[in-house]
Design goal:
With 444 residues, this protein is α/β, with parallel strands linked by helices. The chain is built from 14 helices and 18 strands. It has a seven-stranded mixed sheet, with helices on both faces. Strands 5-4-3-6-7-17 form a six-stranded mixed sheet, sandwiched between helices.
Length: 444
Amino acid sequence: MQAARKALETGKWATMAASRRAKIIYKIAQLIAERAGEIALLEVRDNGKTIGTAKGELSAIVDTFEFYAGAATKNYGSTLPAPVPNYIAHTLLEPVGVVGAIVAWNFPLLLASWKVAPALAAGCTIVLKPATATPLTALELGKIALEAGVPEGVLNVVTGPGSELGQAMVEHPAIDKIAFTGSTATGRRIAATAAQTLKRVTLELGGKSPSLVFADADLEAAVNGALYGIFYNAGQTCEARSRVLVQDSIYDEFVARFGERAQKLRVGDPEDAQTQIGAITLEEQLEKIAADCRAGEKEGAKRLFGGTRVAGDGHDRGLFWNVTAFEADPKHRIAREEIFGPVVVFLKFKTESEAIEIANDSEYGLAASIWSKDISRVNRVARALRTGTVAINTPYAVFPGVPFGGYKRSGYGRELGFETMRLYSETKSVITYVGEKPINPFGV
């Protein structure tokens, strides 16, 4: 933190020509692309995700750094209308200062890129703390940044327990802004602590996101999309569409098709290119998934398949969980609380208004998918949903250049979009008197 503060105050990065910063950030993207294969494998061995997932993430990481390399030269201020005659006014956008970036274990390098790239583009210095369990690719990012030409002290990577290091970052007066991805409970504590030193805060937190499947949907596409929406990355994603709301007239057919395909998904060795669902990253997370499934059955939700740890084929000692599905009532806890694993809950609705009501009846509001061929309906429903991102006839909800973030207890602030640059910038107003006569307000 002291290194980041010193690097900020020397101004080597903040006052560097934006075009020069852009070239360095673009060089980071190039170096990551050149080493994508080895970095992806490192991520797999550190995190347990499948190699196919990791390779896809590396492509998105490269795109993110390239996007913000371009944004570095476009973080414009504004020329304002004259407030009174003989005056001109304009604004400047300057770095917010030292950024403390704290990222989760489910997408270690991807989430780091969402914070590091815009912070560098805005001229900030950074302290990056990866999750305790998954630090390796963050360390590689630090090395790559130095190789690309980022001055020493501008990007600092510290590893260790969040309860100590993360707390120290949130409390430390050298940090001007915290950018955090993680649980809603931790986000609340960060916001409360950061308020004591008036730090700016961006929070990307939990979710219990819905897929809404209407009777007129392309059933084949909806089944495949809903399948991916929950089981991608073994369900360990904040925007996982873990609630699948299906209109009553197609409910039985949809659930039958979904279940048939879900149970064909390959769970196992993350380094095998044919594997579709890898490991649960943390043992305590696997135990939580198991406890949530037991609680779901106890409260009356009907387990359709899965709900058990994978055994045999050498995986009985690993952290693997079978894909799982429940039928539930919207009031069941399993349909309301984030599980963060390969567990889907099916909910039935009759009308469009009921679907919207069920979807919005959540403390979260991060993402949603809508499946329908009716263009009027999808636009009505998209506007009615209280969620930060709505994906129409697709499970894909996250793209570099498109703002991503949540409503309600899913956090505040946005990442990935150009508007994110404003969250790493301070606005300075400059007012200039241009009249011919000297100002003499008191007339003395």
